[in-house]
Design goal:
Two copies of one chain form a homodimer. The first copy, chain A, is built from nine helices and three strands, in the order αβααββαααααα. Chain A is mainly alpha-helical. In chain A, β2 and β3 form a beta hairpin. In chain A, α1 crosses α3 and α6 packs antiparallel against α7. Chain A is globular and about 55 Å long. At the A-B interface, α3, α4 and α7 of A face α3, α4 and α7 of B. Chain A binds a DNA duplex through α2 and α3.
Amino acid sequence: MEEPKLQLIIDEYLPLRDVVFNTLRQGILKGELKPGERLMEIHLANRLGVSRTPIREAIRMLELEGLVTMIPRKGAEVARISKLDLRDVLEVRRSLDSLAVSLACERITEEEKQMLSKTEEDFEKAVTTRDATTIAEADVKFHDVILKASKNGRLVQMVNNLAERVYRYRLEYIKDSRNHQRLIEEHRKIMEYIGAGDAENARNAIETHIDNQEKNIISQLEL
Amino acid sequence: MEEPKLQLIIDEYLPLRDVVFNTLRQGILKGELKPGERLMEIHLANRLGVSRTPIREAIRMLELEGLVTMIPRKGAEVARISKLDLRDVLEVRRSLDSLAVSLACERITEEEKQMLSKTEEDFEKAVTTRDATTIAEADVKFHDVILKASKNGRLVQMVNNLAERVYRYRLEYIKDSRNHQRLIEEHRKIMEYIGAGDAENARNAIETHIDNQEKNIISQLEL
DNA sequence: ATAAAGCACATTGTATACAATAATATTATC
DNA sequence: GATAATATTATTGTATACAATGTGCTTTAT
């Protein structure tokens, strides 16, 4: 009987519920806790060395976050993702990323432009390593700069939450080296349009970017 | 010392945490619990006749929902909403409502078209009552039909969550009878464009609709 | 041998008890 | 009288205890 090794993510003086929340969240995103897997309170409490109270509160949060599904009188399980869910998520994400880019065109500062340029270079370097996790992280950073440049905190939070849900699938997408060159080109275009303050073209570029992701992820699911 | 009368919203066999969640949520949305007001666990537990456990779990959910803010080692308070927050929320909502309308144009069924027409008539009737709550409810129903017609569950959930945050302010907007005729006209236009499957114009119409709300709400805050 | 009844167990839901901490009031000392 | 030290209290954070309920297994009766 092999147990996925949940590593407690300890941050001194963060309430245990948040520690547990982060731990379970990571476990789900990394795939250590698989969709459909039951999350039993006592079991988790023992494994993480805490009582049921913080576990329960963390589960409440994960539930609202959409990463966990409650089954009445049965308990929690890791949310299953259907093809329809994924379509819904990507549809919304496309729209919000598009908004973010267009806001960024208006609101980006000079410093942020330089930052964007730097993260884009980092991304190109990351691609040469051929390590999926490294590339994924560089990609996240690039998009993060754009998001933050939108100066809309709510938007940042919502897009991150959506991105979270497709993280596992995007990782597969990024592993496929056939996509690398296109990713770089798309990033460059997006960056240039933002730099020029050309919202119209920047929107189109990011929408294409997301569409390509979507096609790829959906074709994965069809296997 | 006058206490706002939180009415427990009892739904047989719903866990207490959800009952408490709904109760507090309504209290906040209706303004019985005011922004900045502290939510103390024992206090609430006594008033609602339950223990601290369900109260705490409800607070965790309200926190993720954004209706409550946690202050470290101090507890929860009803979320304060700043002008900037409001701008952020409306900016995102505008974009998502626009998406919903355009999806609805593609995916709406005949039944839903009739439903939309009916809720629009209901809205016009509600306006004649001059009762803000009645009008607000009819307005919510109208928008709900459009949202559901988008056939995107995630989108429905996200827009509802955003709408929640501006509920109180929109109520003020709706109270002002000078806006009524324009609201009706906007609704009619939106409905017609959706009926005709004209996504382009439908988007513009709903964006104008939200923009008008935004202007009005922001001018309220400036008083 | 099979089906039904009942019992034991596992698990969630709720309440309470205990610990830690921060804010406030009180007292003692200068 | 003012200030610092201390005690008290209010409140959150965490653990445990108790209640209710559903599930699966065992036992018994037909």
